Amino acid sequence: MDKLNNMQVFCRIVELGTFASVAREMDLSAMMISKYIAQLEESLGVALLNRTTRKISLTEAGEVYYQRSKQLLDDFSELDESTSQLGRNVKGTLRVSASIDFGGLYMVPAIDAYQQAYPDVKIMMTLHNSQVNLSEGSIDLAILVTDTLDLGVVARKIAETRLCTYASPGYIRQYGEPKVIEELKFHHCLYNTDTPHKDYWIYRVDNEEVKVKTSWRLASNNGRALCQAAALGMGITQAPELSVATYLAQGQLVEILQDHRIPTLAIYATYLQRRFMPAKLTTFVDFLVRYFAEIDMHNP
């Protein structure tokens, strides 16, 4: 078991990049992590890691050992999963990542409904807008609202939404409504710093996608904050329709530049392909597909 533990520590150092990161994840001291690696290298009789004050890198032996160790650890995990499911109880901890807006608005009710059907599955949900590297192993499932996907991942579409441009009736009364995208440069714009398109807004002109760089007045990485600002008349925002559904229903925001709206954005559940898919993962993804097919996210 000591060898298996040391192997797990070694793989996480390779994946996270520092001893300190692994120590925090495992709630151990950095000295203890170093001890595990020293034990592993001593038992093998080779150095696995090159250590400098700046970074850690793999030796040639370390590269080979990591690839084989990772496969063995995955096999052990799959063995545990397959054996535990012989009792027909779906259980375990599922680590899920989602964007701040979508996760905060829609994932909690979905998780509640799922856990009523599968009470032995624990969900650890992280909300952020950063790109998720599933190969690092810290996340089992990433929910993405996107028009582009990384290679090498399985993607199941669970829903879709439209990317639209919005302003409040009060803002339009005071500043007028832009009728063409070129007029946006004369308006106060509210810019989301964490979109895949950076500081550009995306539109469709003559069946072609164009990027428009706006002059922003307020910027934030939180889409809900920007929708609130738009509802208060602070400016114009571009956002997925699912993020502004409540504001639209209450008449606090209206859509503008409808003729230049791009095609719908898909919302995907993404995960790595494995030889054996844990039941906690497959049941959750299947449930999300059914759940979002039955609700209307755009009419709260």
Tell me what you see in this structure.
By secondary structure, the chain is of the alpha/beta class. The protein has three domains: 2-85, Winged helix-like DNA-binding domain superfamily/Winged helix DNA-binding domain (Arc Repressor Mutant, subunit A); 89-161 and 265-294, D-Maltodextrin-Binding Protein, domain 2 (3-Layer(aba) Sandwich), CATH 3.40.190.10; 163-260, 3-Layer(aba) Sandwich (D-Maltodextrin-Binding Protein, domain 2), CATH 3.40.190.290. Helices cover 39% and strands 25% of the residues. The chain is built from nine helices and 14 strands. It has helices spanning 2-16, 19-26, 30-44, 60-84, 100-117, 169-175, 223-231, 245-249, 279-294, and strands at 49-51, 56-58, 92-98, 121-127, 141-146, 154-161, 163-167, 189-192, 200-205, 208-213, 216-220, 236-240, 254-256, 265-271. It has a five-stranded mixed β-sheet, with helices on one face. The chain has a five-stranded mixed β-sheet with strand order 11-8-12-7-13. Helix 1 (2-16) packs across helix 3, helix 1 crosses helix 4 and helix 2 (19-26) crosses helix 3. The longest helix is centred in the first third of the chain and has 25 residues, at 60-84.
